[in-house]
Amino acid sequence: MTPPDASDHRWSDLDRPPLSAAALRRALVREGSLWTSLDVVPSVGSTNTDLAARAGELPEGAVLVAEEQTEGRGRLDRRWSAPARSGLFFSVLLKPTGIPVDQWGWLPLLAGVSVATGLSRAAGVDTALKWPNDLLVTVGGEERKAGGILAERAADGVVVGIGINVTLSEKELPVPGAGSLALAGAVSTDRDTLLRAVLRSLAQWYGAWRESGGDPAASRVQEAYAAGCATLGRTVRAELPGGRSVTGEAVAVDGHGRLVLATAEGVQQPVGAGDVVHLRPGASTEETRGTEE
């Protein structure tokens, strides 16, 4: 008998075993849960793109997970790439009917709080949030980006995509300044465990937000985001649409999820969209910025 090709064996990469879709569904897709379906695919261009294409026919709570993304996207259409099974790459469909649309902008920030909470419990890693959608970890005393969040309107809901670098080694990082949970000293890099923790955390925070009518203060989402936001208290440069920029101290995240900057002119400038660069104290040089390709 010819032995099976090792490359076809389910456990051919012992350091990066595949996700167990059946076990994940048993743990997460149950009566009364937010999660109504969970699919794991070997490879996809973008989980956000694929899930958004089916958003009109799927119920709230659909989850699409990919072992590999070939066309993963971050903000401003930047590419997000990583080796197969080296991270968590997934999208969820949320349909917050009854919540004012002007509060839907809190969903990516709520997702950030959920990811940080879930990873703290399951990986033992202190994950900070860089406004509006980056996940930061500390590697060798340096802040590095280990993940990101992208929320997009789709049909009558929102698709929230989350990417987290889990086991990437230093030589596998896509760009300087990137990081991973493994490099940050995670106590666990079991992706099944991490995904369950993040999705359970997201269900809890989203449920509280919905029950409060989308009120970020009553649901404590605003408080939790501010507590975990590494941008607050720092001098930053916000690069705004149209090529403009504004520099100031990040002093608050307001009720609409905007970052409020106190400028040198004494103006409180809310920023609702843009690329934020952390600046070193007393200088205009960059300290931390997004690391998508």
Order of helices and strands: HEHEEEEHEEEEHHEEEEEE
- Helical percentage: 10-25%
Q: Structural class of the secondary structure composition?
A: alpha+beta
- Biggest sheet architecture: 7 strands, mixed
Task: Estimate what percentage of residues fall within beta strands.
Answer: 25-35%
Instruction: Trace the largest sheet across and list its strands.
Output: 1-2-5-9-8-7-6
Mass-distribution shape: globular
Low-pLDDT ranges: 1-12, 288-293
What is the tally of beta strands? Answer: 15
N-to-C CA distance: 46 Å
Radius of gyration: 19 Å
Alpha plus pi helix count = 5
What's the overall average pLDDT, rounded?
Answer: 90
InterPro entries: aa-tRNA-synth_II/BPL/LPL, Biotin_CoA_COase_ligase, BPL_C, BPL_LPL_catalytic
Keywords: Biotin, Ligase
Pfam family, one: BPL_C
GO molecular function: biotin--[biotin carboxyl-carrier protein] ligase activity
Would you mind describing this structure in some detail?
It comes from Streptomyces albidochromogenes. This is biotin--[biotin carboxyl-carrier protein] ligase. Its EC number is 6.3.4.15. Residues 27-210 form the BPL/LPL catalytic domain. By secondary structure, this protein is an alpha+beta fold. It has helices at residues 21-28, 47-53, 107-123, 191-211, 221-228, and strands at 37-41, 62-66, 72-73, 79-80, 87-94, 128-130, 134-139, 142-154, 157-165, 235-239, 245-253, 259-262, 268-271, 275-279, 286-288. It has 5 helices and 15 strands. It has a 7-stranded mixed sheet with strand order 1-2-5-9-8-7-6, sandwiched between helices. It has a 6-stranded antiparallel sheet with strand order 13-12-11-10-14-15. It has a two-stranded antiparallel ribbon with strand order 3-4. Helix 3 (107-123) crosses helix 4 (191-211). The longest helix has 21 residues, at 191-211. The radius of gyration is 19 Å and the shape is globular.
